[in-house]
């Protein structure tokens, strides 16, 4: 294994310390959201959409699964850092600027919330650039941050609805039910969707060799995220039609567009991975006969089942380790061919090749008698 880079350590320390401090702030704020029973009820309602939305992003992230530790960090950043910072800045900024609640919700909130959510992605771009290979990775990390943010924000809104202090709900179960339907059932993808624009900008920057694009793409993504967020908030405040109309005219088309882009990006990743591994095979880095068992998702599962039947759990784990290392090598090799490889590409590449060589003799793919060397 290559030595852990200092920038990776710095990223982990900064994110962990910030999450812990902001978690304390949010727990303090949640203590004022209502009685413990109310907060517990709101938490239960807010948790309902989390699993399905996370599963949707995990489905997209199957070719090259991101490190689980980073995905958890993204969720925690959204749940604590982004929410705590946004609550403080929104409150202080609205007071100092003399803005009304509606103006603050339509202008200040989108700018600050998308900035605090997007900051995690910018930290990835700055310190963990090698972990983000393109638009799809940007979408996945943005989605995780947005899911975490929506979860904590929904707790606050649901608790206020139950207490009848949000100015719109009658309180009690009737109030919390209406808020739950609107925020957790009709628009669970709202915050992930807004932050996805920043993620797309980060992904474009990663794949570009032009310095101007590397700077302007993330900035443009953030501005688009804030704009989309601001239009959504303004629509619910100033009445650009009913909620259902706004949902159909604004949220649904944007959601469908981003889903289409995500599916396109995943299909593109498959083609890119195939081409890069073919080039790697021509250079002797991986057997060409193995590429199909690495690129095709169904073939991956079949290979693992075959290995488990032939050699037990150890062989299955060897296949999984081999496939993961080969995929990582393919993405790294593609970035090298495009001229956008990370600074430590040689150490990373040597590590992937060593992992491949270490586990390949321990199994055979279906139809093979002995491992292909």
Automatic annotation (TrEMBL):
Transmembrane parts of this sequence: 9-33, 39-60, 72-97, 103-127, 139-160, 180-206, 213-232, 244-265
Pfam families: PrsW-protease
Keyword hit for Protein biosynthesis: no
GO terms assigned for molecular function: metallopeptidase activity
InterPro entries for this protein: PrsW
Keyword Transmembrane among UniProt keywords: yes
Alphabetical keyword list: Hydrolase, Membrane, Metalloprotease, Protease, Transmembrane, Transmembrane helix
Domain of life: Bacteria
Protein's name according to its UniProt entry: PrsW family intramembrane metalloprotease
């Amino acid at each position: 294994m290559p030595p852990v880079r200092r920038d990776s350590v710095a990223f982990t320390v900064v994110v962990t310390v910030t999450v812990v401090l902001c978690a304390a702030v949010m727990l303090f704020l949640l203590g004022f959201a209502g009685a413990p029973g109310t907060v517990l009820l709101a938490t239960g309602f807010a948790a309902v959409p989390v699993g399905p939305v996370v599963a949707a992003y995990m489905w997209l992230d199957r070719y090259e699964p991101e490190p689980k530790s980073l995905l958890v960090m993204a969720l925690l950043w959204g749940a604590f850092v982004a929410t705590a910072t946004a609550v403080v800045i929104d409150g202080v900024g609205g007071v100092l600027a003399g803005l009304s609640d509606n103006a603050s919700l339509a202008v200040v909130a989108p700018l600050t919330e998308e900035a605090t959510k997007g900051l995690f992605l910018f930290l990835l771009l700055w310190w963990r650039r090698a972990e983000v290979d393109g638009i799809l990775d940007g979408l996945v990390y943005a989605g995780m941050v947005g899911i975490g943010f929506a979860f904590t924000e929904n707790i606050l809104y649901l608790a206020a609805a139950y207490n009848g202090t949000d100015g719109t709900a009658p309180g009690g179960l009737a109030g919390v039910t209406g808020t739950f339907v609107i925020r957790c059932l009709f628009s669970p993808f709202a915050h992930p969707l807004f932050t996805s624009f920043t993620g797309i900008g980060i992904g474009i920057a990663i794949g570009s060799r032009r310095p101007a694009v590397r700077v302007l793409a993330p900035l443009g993504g953030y501005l688009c995220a804030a704009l989309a967020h601001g239009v959504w908030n303004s629509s619910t405040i100033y009445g650009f039609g009913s909620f259902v109309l706004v949902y159909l005219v604004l949220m649904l088309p944007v959601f469908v567009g981003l889903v289409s882009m995500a599916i396109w990006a995943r299909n593109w990743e498959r083609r890119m991975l195939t081409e890069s591994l073919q080039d790697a095979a021509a250079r002797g880095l991986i057997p060409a006969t193995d590429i199909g068992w690495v690129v095709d998702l169904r073939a991956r599962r079949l290979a693992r089942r075959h290995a488990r039947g032939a050699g037990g759990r150890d062989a299955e784990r060897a296949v999984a380790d081999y496939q993961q290392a080969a995929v990582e090598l393919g993405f790294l090799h593609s970035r090298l061919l495009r001229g956008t490889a990370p600074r430590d590409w040689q150490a990373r590449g040597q590590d992937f090749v060593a992992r491949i060589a270490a586990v390949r003799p321990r199994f055979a793919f279906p139809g093979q008698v002995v491992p292909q060397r």
